From TrEMBL:
<protein>
    <submittedName>
        <fullName>Alcohol dehydrogenase</fullName>
    </submittedName>
</protein>
<dbReference type="InterPro" id="IPR036291">
    <property type="entry name" value="NAD(P)-bd_dom_sf"/>
</dbReference>
<dbReference type="InterPro" id="IPR002347">
    <property type="entry name" value="SDR_fam"/>
</dbReference>
<dbReference type="GO" id="GO:0016491">
    <property type="term" value="F:oxidoreductase activity"/>
</dbReference>
<comment type="similarity">
    <text>Belongs to the short-chain dehydrogenases/reductases (SDR) family.</text>
</comment>
<keyword id="KW-0560">Oxidoreductase</keyword>
<dbReference type="Pfam" id="PF00106">
    <property type="entry name" value="adh_short"/>
</dbReference>
Length: 312
């Protein structure tokens, strides 16, 4: 789809972070924008900000873990705009688990899987038939190098990183590959894309625990404080890393450019993290050890007493 003007975009997780940036960029391209999010007030604010900039925007409170809610979103989009052309399954929740993976709270697993995996599946199920009927459109699923490439072994807070988040993002990559082939088999022009937001991003994902829904309430007593972005930055700086946030606009550029070029892998320019991909391929081909597993700073994780988990 070369010309986005007048087309309709739906972005889940649109109330903040990357989703909000996508909404702004799509609006800037002359698209009508539907932001969907489970958080009503931030959604309202984000939608109003778009409208204040002359963008035709609608906010629809949606819980991607609930299929009937995503179906209702699709119905509302068609009612308002009569079509949908770009669907970004972007809503996500970050790492809240602490300790080793066998110590993670089952409620953390369920929450992560429901939002990050089932949420994407719900988006595909509700929207792809509409796109197929139109004969054109794009599905963009937000993945992460953390899981999409390989799981980050040690988290930003020093202890073992959560195993929940990367597992869900590995699933997002896998199901987007399946979506790509299934769409191809039908001969449609509808395309699937996988988005890898690059760099260090200042979004709510680092502190997802602030909006933990009651039905995923923790069932275990926490031993360590919840991670905060401020603490993560502090640790990075203490480790000698230069902390610089990547503008969210560059992630939106990856998406708009990727749509224009029909690019499956929506990624930024090559970074040192790409080496994990080749090291992993080499390890598989050599039937070796997974020695490509690194920490959040790209360093090899060495044994250290467990401290805190938590990763985007
Ligand atoms: N920030 C990063 O560094 C980074 C890196 C790679 C991938 N990602 C991915 O990007 C996507 C967007 O995250 P972000 O970084 O902008 O974080 P964010 O927390 O700012 O945005 C995520 C949005 O998803 C919404 N959400 C959570 N649960 C939901 C539900 N059940 N239904 C509907 N909406 C729900 C949240 O309310 C929030 O507005 C996520 O999928 C995340 O995993 C982020």
């Amino acid at each position: 789809m070369k010309d986005l003007r007048g087309k309709v975009a739906v972005v889940t997780g649109g109330a903040g972070g990357i989703g909000q940036a996508l909404g702004r960029r799509f609006g800037g391209e002359g698209m009508k924008v539907v932001l969907a999010d489970v958080l009503a007030d931030p959604l309202d604010e984000a939608t109003r900000a778009l409208a204040d900039n002359g963008i035709e925007a609608v906010g629809v409170v949606t819980d991607v873990t609930d299929y009937s809610s995503v179906e209702a979103l699709a119905t509302e989009v068609l009612r308002r705009f009569g079509a949908v052309h770009v669907v970004c399954n972007n809503a996500g929740t970050g790492g809240v688990s602490e300790g080793y993976m066998w110590e993670h709270d089952l409620a953390d697993w369920r929450w992560g899987i429901d939002v990050n995996v089932l949420g994407v599946i719900h988006g595909i199920k509700a929207f792809v038939p509409i796109l197929l009927e139109q004969g054109d459109g794009h599905v963009v699923n937000t993945c992460s190098g953390n899981g999409g490439f390989a799981p980050i072994a040690r988290g930003a807070m020093g202890g073992p990183a959560t195993a929940v988040y990367p597992m869900t993002k590995a699933a997002v990559l896998c199901l987007t590959e399946s979506l790509y082939t299934h769409l191809q088999m039908t001969g449609t022009r509808v395309r699937a894309h996988v988005l890898f937001p690059g760099g260090f991003l200042n979004t709510g994902i680092w502190e997802s625990w602030r909006h933990r829904p009651p039905r995923y309430a923790a069932t275990q007593q926490r031993r360590t404080p919840e991670p905060t972005l401020a603490k993560v930055v502090e640790r990075f700086e203490a480790a000698g890393a230069r902390v610089e946030f990547t503008p969210l606009e560059s992630v939106a550029d990856q998406v708009v450019d990727g749509i224009a070029a029909d690019r499956f892998w929506m990624m930024g320019p090559p970074t040192p993290a790409d080496q994990v991909v080749s090291a992993k391929a080499a390890s598989i081909l050599a039937r070796g050890e997974p020695d490509y597993l690194v920490d959040v700073l790209g360093q090899h994780a060495e044994a250290e007493p467990a401290a805190e988990g938590g990763m985007r």
